[in-house]
Write a structure and sequence with these properties.
3 domains; Membrane-bound Lytic Murein Transglycosylase D, Chain A; alpha+beta; 259 residues; single chain
Length: 259
Amino acid sequence: MSGPPRQNEQLRKFLNLFRKNRLVFIVAISTCLLYGSCASKDSIRKRRYERPSASSSQQSAVRHKYHVIKKGETLYGIAKKYGVSVKEIQRINRIKDARDIDVGRKIYIPRRSKSVSSRPKRVVKPKYTSPKASVRFVWPVKRVDISSRYGARTNGRHDGIDLRARKGTPIYAAARGKVIFSGTGPTGYGKMIIIKHDKRTITIYAHNQRNLVKKNRFVKRGQKIGEVGRSGRATGYHVHFEIRINRKPVNPEKYLPRR
């Protein structure tokens, strides 16, 4: 055995001690290895199964389960608080009327997979646009004097425009078409003419003094069809003029030529 005498001497002593106490050494080493391996397995288990502490962003997305309704609370307010829809809460809890909820009742709050903003989405209402007409119109009287426009009135809705004119002033067809009505109209309209221009579009001429065309007759644009009067419920001499597309009244001024 080579090496410094002192080191060789120490090594001989250790080997002699090991030979004499071999059993003690084996038990000690085995115990150390056993405890060491167990400790490592525990730490692995801890690392594998121990839940990490929730961060602030994770805490905000905590999934709620139950809510006890308090006095003054509404289903809409509760839904907004938890970021879920009212319909979902109603469906899960079998609530028919969202306004009919009992104080102290425990309701189930559906889980949410993503964080929902409490700010309601802004709903942009589509702008109303008048339906397009495939018909080209002219004014039903030569001299245009609008006494009442289309739209809301204090006593109801006005479905057309009133064109003031002298008694007996000629009324002209606003476009070519077929006369589908000529006679006394509904209450208040007096003597009236209706002309169908295509599958979707008709025009109405009311409060006439005389109708000069009969039903089922075809007329041209600008053809004389009647005379201005105040038959029916009318306070002065004028022709009530309407344009209807798909049976719905529209503002005639949007379809007539500019004056």
